């Protein structure tokens, strides 16, 4: 993927030079080893600072909501799917965007550069689903991948085993909100964790508040999560946050045949109503 960077720089410089866009959202070299950081450039000469490799883990769609200018954004498969989400949810207009599509072969794990991130290993949409310019040929999509093997393992547990599993999963959480801040879906002006009237969840690290935060945040992502892995990439405690959203992703797929962010022409299941909607999940 490092070979893509020349084309990304060329496209970005051209778009800024001819005034097609006012800024480009991409990645530059980070200050921590094996990590690149999101950046926004407004001058054509700064395109030289853009980078692209297997350490571009965060989701750049997180940085375009609520903006009014014309924007170019470098987008791999999951980024492009979240851009689709933003268009559907009226957080940005399609006309505002020039999407520089990046076919992706996966990001490496932040703790083990010898292997792919867990979400990338099971990704079925490596190519951008929406783009205006493409920096390389499309890559072959993965096939015969079991996306929900881990979910089924949890589903097979009894109640006590599930409780113990999630207790252990969240044992290291400090409520730093890195997962929320990195998530392109978490753009509410006032998050439920900050509401005081009513107060949905306490501000400390009481185990009940920690559980409430994670479960409620996951439900807010139901039918919208693209499994981009930004939450896990951002977590300083290496908590497998995707264990919450992956179950909901599986349910949306099996109940509604829905995968988030693949089309701007259809509303998500929890944003629409049909008389023949399945109701098996209703208790």
UniProtKB/TrEMBL annotation:
What superkingdom heads the lineage? Bacteria
An annotated Gene Ontology molecular function: iron-sulfur cluster binding
| Gene3D superfamilies, per database record | Alpha-helical ferredoxin (1.10.1060.10)
Q: Is the keyword Iron-sulfur assigned to this protein?
A: yes
Q: Does the keyword Metal-binding apply?
A: yes
Keywords from the UniProt entry: Iron, Iron-sulfur, Metal-binding
Domain 4Fe-4S ferredoxin-type: where? 216-244
- According to UniProt, the name of this protein is Alpha-helical ferredoxin
Please name the source species: Desulfoluna butyratoxydans
